[in-house]
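Private note to self, pasted from the team thread so I don't lose it. Backbone tokens:
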């Protein structure tokens, strides 16, 4: 219920200091009436969505998650998904991350050989829910299933894993609710990223060219988690408030990302945004810095570019 309420507002994506938090706040505001009712009646929290949960409101926990999904930078390698390549979603993620970034990330918990797609990172599904294949482990403990596990523990006082002891104190139960909300914020961040053309067109190079690594700062890279379009939205964040609502026709968890209805040959489906996921809509209607007039997006020369 919470996911449907929040995700039926069109979400776009971006830097985690201004845009992601603001987008998340606005989506919470648009869903506030329904969520307050749910928190009051179903969860018996007297102040509804404004109830303090371990010193933060529900909105503040969700916003915190939308910030933390980009930390550390290497985590963001899993924030890409190409909806038109007809591959299982385990194989539809970023492929043009360059060798220098790979060398930075290889010793972290987000190594290049483990990169997966945004939708798989968020939901564990490798093709559309609810009947698609689903992996137990993706390397992301803060995904949709992670949020559900913590929410289950909050509701029941029992661990989702039966081998763990039951939760016996209110403070610990409340911490599980806080973790569930933070994980929900991380999942919302991932969906927001599907509104960025480079994130649905396998264009990591656009990030390097704009804010990350160039030939002059090769050994002093700072950040590569957002690019020119995302920076423009950051500097014109008044646009965020004008985001429009949609009513996704079939509300499964993965359909918010990708319905698997678009294969690159049938762009007419873009005429009805309620029938496709955000990744499909963005891929159909927009190009990124390095995918203009390219059939397969990055050319062989671009995708192997090791200048940086």
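Design output:
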């Amino acid at each position: 219920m919470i996911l449907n309420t929040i995700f039926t507002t069109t979400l776009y994506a971006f830097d985690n200091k201004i845009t992601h938090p603001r987008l998340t706040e606005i989506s919470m505001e648009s869903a506030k009436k329904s969520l307050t009712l749910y928190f009051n009646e179903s969860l018996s929290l007297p102040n509804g969505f404004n109830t303090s949960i371990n010193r933060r409101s529900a909105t503040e926990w969700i916003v915190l998650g939308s910030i933390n999904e980009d930390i550390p930078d290497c985590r963001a390698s899993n924030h890409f998904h190409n909806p038109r390549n007809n591959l299982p979603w385990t194989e539809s993620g970023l492929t043009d991350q360059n060798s220098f970034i790979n060398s930075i990330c290889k010793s972290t918990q987000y190594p290049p050989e483990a990169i997966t797609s945004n939708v798989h990172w968020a939901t564990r599904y490798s093709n559309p829910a609810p009947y698609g294949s689903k992996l137990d482990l993706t390397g992301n403990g803060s995904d949709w299933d992670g949020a559900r596990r913590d929410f289950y523990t909050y509701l029941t006082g029992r661990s989702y894993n039966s081998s763990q002891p039951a939760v016996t104190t209110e403070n610990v139960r409340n911490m599980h609710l806080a973790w569930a909300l933070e994980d929900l914020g991380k999942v919302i961040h991932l969906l927001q990223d599907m509104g960025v053309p480079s994130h649905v067109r396998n264009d990591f190079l656009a990030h390097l060219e704009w804010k990350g690594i160039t030939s002059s700062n090769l050994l002093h890279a700072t950040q590569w988690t957002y690019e020119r379009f995302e920076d423009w939205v950051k500097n014109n964040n008044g646009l965020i408030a004008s985001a429009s609502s949609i009513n996704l026709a079939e509300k499964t968890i993965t359909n918010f990302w990708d319905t698997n209805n678009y294969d690159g040959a049938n762009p007419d489906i873009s005429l009805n945004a309620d029938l496709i996921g955000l990744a499909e809509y963005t891929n159909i209607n927009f190009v990124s810095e390095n995918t203009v007039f390219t059939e397969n997006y990055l050319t062989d020369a671009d995708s192997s570019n090791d200048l940086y």
